[in-house]
Amino acid sequence: VAKSGGKNRVRVFERGMREEVTAQDELVRDLRAAVPNGELRLLYQPQVDLRTGAVTGVEALARWQSPSRGLVEPAGFIPVAETSGVVDAIDDWVIGEACRQLRAWDDAGLPALGVAVNVSARRLGTGDLAVTLAAAARDAGVAPARLEIEVPEAVAAGPDAAAGIREVRALGVRVAIDDFGTGSSSLSRLQDLPLDRLKIDTTSVALLAADAAAGSLADAVIALGNSLGLQVVAEGVEQPGQLAALRALGCDTAQGHLFGSPVPADAVETLLRDGRVLPAVA
Ligand code: C2E
Ligand code: MG
Ligand code: MG
Ligand code: MG
After folding, report:
1. Residues lining ligand 4 (ion), CB within 5 A?
2. Distance from the CA of 73 to the center of ligand 1, in angstroms?
């Protein structure tokens, strides 16, 4: 009895695995078609200068409007895109679209914004990210200095990132370290990279008002950024108390639901036309 039970379990396990593999294959297949089919969208989240209250830029965040799956958040497709390699095509589309949108905002007479795009570890390591950024900026007629790439801390600290970062920076495109404070990068390694900004991770900001230890982590990141001559951007700012704490610590720029959630391009236009100083800061 024990033996046949064991056998059945093995079969059930195998069938479960096969179903999982099939679902994964279908996801990859649908995702591969998403770029040529025009199913990707960008939302833009405002970044606010804490001294002036002005919106100085936006972060572009991808969404997948799938005909069969509905609206898919990055957590539902970026990890699969990374393991399957589809993320290269996604990142390239994001770069092109963000540049076209900057140009459209310029043409509409809005103040010149910067745009930050997230790039995957894979895309940074492929060797032609700088070429892609240069071509996209040129095609759209925007200066490369208005573009920024966000590289997660864990990726930036890796052995293959430095060359890619230097090439991108040499173009005049800015480089930010994303989710800083979540990895365990060696400081000397980061110090050797040509960087512009550090982004304090959402989880550190979330704990800011509540937890003294988290406060001191944010404090340390801001002090580190200032000492390296980098701008510091806080992500995920939701509460006035967090904003007050960040300002007191000398944080330069903030992003989060307190100022504005990620929204479609036309809503950014409305936000900027209504006045550049946000009530949360003014
Ligand atoms: P990230 O770059 O660290 O983006 C910040 C995330 O925090 C975004 O989630 C944003 O919507 C969310 N957020 C914004 N304000 C708040 C707030 O006040 N509170 C909280 N709790 N969260 C806030 P999202 O859009 O789901 O993106 C998740 C991640 O997916 C991004 O993290 C980024 O790593 C990745 N991602 C997004 N778009 C792209 C892309 O185009 N290419 C690549 N390679 N990765 C992307
Ligand atoms: Mg989200
Ligand atoms: Mg980011
Ligand atoms: Mg982040």
Report:
1. 178-179, 235
2. 9
Which amino acid is located at 7 in the chain?
A: K
User: How many angstroms does the Cα of residue 198 sit away from the middle of ligand 4?
Assistant: 10
- Report which protein residue has its CA nearest ligand 1's atom 17: 236
How many CA atoms does the CB half-sphere of 194 hold within 13 Å?
Answer: 13
Given its phi and psi angles, is residue 256 left (phi above 0), alpha (psi -120 to 50 degrees) or beta? Answer: left
Ligand 1 site, residue 242, Cβ cutoff 6 A = no
Question: Relative to the CA of 123, which ligand 1 atom is closest?
Answer: 44
Low-confidence residues of the chain: pLDDT under 70: 1-15, 17-18, 184-187, 209-215, 275-282
Look at ligand 1, atom 29, and give the residue with the nearest C-alpha.
74
Strands 174-180 and 197-200: parallel
Structure tokens at 130: 């700088």
Q: How far is the CA of 82 from the centre of ligand 4 (A)?
A: 17
Query: What is the token pair recorded at 211?
Result: 């937890």
Which residues face 233 on adjacent strands?
Answer: 199, 253
Task: Kindly state the helix (H) or strand (E) to which residue 50 belongs, with its residue range.
Answer: none
Predicted pLDDT at 115 = 98
What is the interface pTM, i.e. ipTM, of the complex? 0.96
Give me the residues paired with residue 62 across strands. 42
Which pLDDT belongs to residue 278?
A: 61
Cβ contact 132:74 at 8 Å: no
